[in-house]
C-alpha cells in the first residue's frame, strides 16, 4: 500500500539524522497524532467507537491526513495525574496505532475486538522507538520526498520534490514521505 506520512524533525533527530533518500528501505510503525474521542471539531482529528463491524479502511483525504476504520487488535493504557492516554493497534489495510487521550484520567472504554473509525494525520515512528508501546512493524520503501519550505526567504511556502533529505535538522519545514509499505 502507498502511504504519505509526516516526518517530524524531532523524530528525524532521534534517528541520528540517518540518510533519508528515495529508494531507501525503513523499518517503521504508523501512528496518529493525539486524538480525542468524538472530538469532531478538533483539527488534529477524532475517533469514535462503532456499534458494530465496519469494513477496514485507510483512505487518504489530503497529504498525511487519512480517514480510518478498523478493529482494535491490542490496547495499552497509560495514565498520570489528570492525563490518560490509550494506545490502540487498529487493523486497517495498513495497521496503525491510534493515540487516544482523555484529560480527566478516566480510561477510554475501548477493548480488543471493538471497532473504531475516525480521521487523523499519520506520522512515521521508527520501528525500534519507545515512543509508542504497541505497533505493527512494517518495511517501507521511500518513493518520494516532499519538503514544504517554511523558513523565511526565497522559496517560502513552496513544496519541492527532493531525492534526499540532508542529515541535519529541517526545523519549521514540513517533510512528507510517500512510502510503499509491506508487512
Description of the molecule:
This protein is mainly beta and about 180 residues long. The chain has one domain. Helices cover about 5% and strands about 55% of the residues. The protein contains one helix and 13 strands; from the N terminus they run βαββββββββββββ. It has one helix at about 10-15; strands spanning about 1-5, 20, 25-35, 45-50, 55-60, 65-80, 85-90, 95-100, 115-125, 140-150, 160, 165, 175-180. The strands form two sheets. Strands 1, 3, 4, 5, 6, 7, 8, 9, 10, 11 and 13 form an eleven-stranded mixed beta sheet that branches. The chain has a two-stranded antiparallel sheet with strand order 2-12.
Mean pLDDT: 90
The shape is: globular
SS summary, helix count: 1
What are the secondary-structure elements, in order, as H or E?
EHEEEEEEEEEEEE
Q: Tell me the major beta sheet.
A: 11 strands, mixed
Unreliable residue runs:
none
- Strand percentage lies at over 45%
Q: Report the span from N to C terminus.
A: 10 Å
Number of structural units classed as domains: 1
Number of strands: 13
Give the structural class. mainly beta
- The Cα radius of gyration reads 17 Å
- The amount of helix comes to under 10%
Amino acid at each position: 500500500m502507498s502511504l504519505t506520512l509526516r516526518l517530524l524533525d524531532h523524530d528525524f533527530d532521534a534517528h541520528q539524522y540517518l540518510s533519508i533518500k528515495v529508494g531507501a528501505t525503513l523499518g517503521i510503525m504508523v501512528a496518529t497524532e493525539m486524538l480525542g474521542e468524538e472530538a469532531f471539531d478538533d483539527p488534529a482529528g477524532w475517533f469514535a467507537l462503532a456499534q458494530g463491524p465496519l469494513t477496514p479502511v485507510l483512505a487518504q483525504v489530503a497529504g498525511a491526513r487519512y480517514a480510518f476504520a478498523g478493529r482494535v487488535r491490542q490496547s495499552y493504557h497509560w495514565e498520570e495525574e489528570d492525563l490518560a492516554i490509550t494506545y490502540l493497534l487498529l487493523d486497517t489495510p495498513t495497521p496503525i496505532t491510534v493515540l487516544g487521550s482523555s484529560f480527566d484520567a478516566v480510561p477510554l472504554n475501548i477493548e480488543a475486538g471493538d471497532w473504531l473509525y475516525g480521521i487523523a494525520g499519520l506520522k512515521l515512528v521508527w520501528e525500534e522507538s519507545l515512543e509508542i508501546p504497541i505497533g505493527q512493524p512494517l518495511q517501507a520503501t521511500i518513493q518520494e520526498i516532499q519538503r514544504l519550505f517554511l523558513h523565511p526567504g526565497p522559496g517560502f511556502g513552496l513544496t519541492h520534490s527532493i531525492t534526499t533529505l540532508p542529515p541535519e535538522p529541517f526545523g519549521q519545514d514540513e517533510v512528507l514521505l510517500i512510502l510503499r509499505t509491506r508487512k
